[in-house]
Amino acid sequence: MSRPSWEEYFMDIARLVARRSTCLRRQVGAVLVKDKNILATGYNGTPSGITHCAETGCLREQLKVPSGERHELCRGLHAEQNAIIQAARHGVNISGATLYCTNSPCIICTKMLINAGIRRVVYLDGYPDTLSMDMLGEAGIEVVIFNPAGNAPHGGE
Fold first, then answer.
1. Which member of 6, 23, 37, 89 has the greatest number of CB atoms within 10 A?
2. Measuring CA to CA, how many Å separate 76 from each of 49, 114, 135?
3. What are residue 98's phi and psi, to 5 degrees?
4. Could you give the CA distance from residue 30 to residue 47 in angstroms, rounded to a whole number?
5. If you average pLDDT over residues 120-148, what whole number do you get?
6. Are 145 and 139 in contact (CB under 8 A)?
């Protein structure tokens, strides 16, 4: 039996969380971790109690908004935003945590992650937002593209 590394374990959980997404364009999952403990999770979709896009249709598709642009033109929240909000609702300090996410963060999420004190971001797939990567680097946040073989020696969280 092959036991997953911590990196694989948390990324597998992020993938599972993404399956709860209600977004019609992209399913994203996020997990905030500190000291090998899961602090909060989030997936992208409409706020609680708001009609899902499956019923209303995708506003971004209707307006023909390209991926990575005009993030405010969406009924939903991003996975990273929902993870931060869940931590706040439950009084969980996420400063110093690592974010495991199925996609790299957009610029809006990046600004939130910086101010929340996230110290490391591990992501699976890229996202068309170079400003986000530039700001993460400027903030001194370590950014890692997930690679099960390459990330294992770090030991993860």
1. 23
2. 12, 21, 23
3. -105, 135
4. 16
5. 93
6. no
Angle at 143 between CA 137 and CA 148, to 5 degrees: 165
Contact criterion met (CB below 8 Å) for 92 and 115: no
Task: Strand 142-145: give its sheet, edge to edge.
Answer: 37-43, 29-34, 98-103, 120-125, 142-145
pLDDT digits (tens, 9 = 90+) for 26-74: 899 999 999 999 999 999 999 999 988 888 888 888 898 887 788 788 8
d(CA 110, CA 120): 11
Strands 29-34 and 37-43: antiparallel
Exposure string over 128-155, b if 16+ CB within 10 A, otherwise e: ebeebbebbeeeebebbebeeeebeeee
**Would residue 80 show up in a list of annotated catalytic residues for this protein?**
yes
Q: What pTM did the predictor assign? A: 0.90
Which is the catalytic residue, given 8, 61, 80, 142? 80
Contact 42, 80 (CB under 8 A): yes
In sequence order, what are the residues at sequence separation of 6 or more whose Cβ sits closer than 8 angstroms to the Cβ of residue 130?
Answer: none
Angle between the N-to-C axes of helices 107-116 and 130-138, in degrees from 0 to 180, rounded to the nearest 10: 20
pLDDT tens across 74-131, in order? 888 999 999 999 999 999 999 999 999 999 999 999 999 999 999 999 999 987 789 9
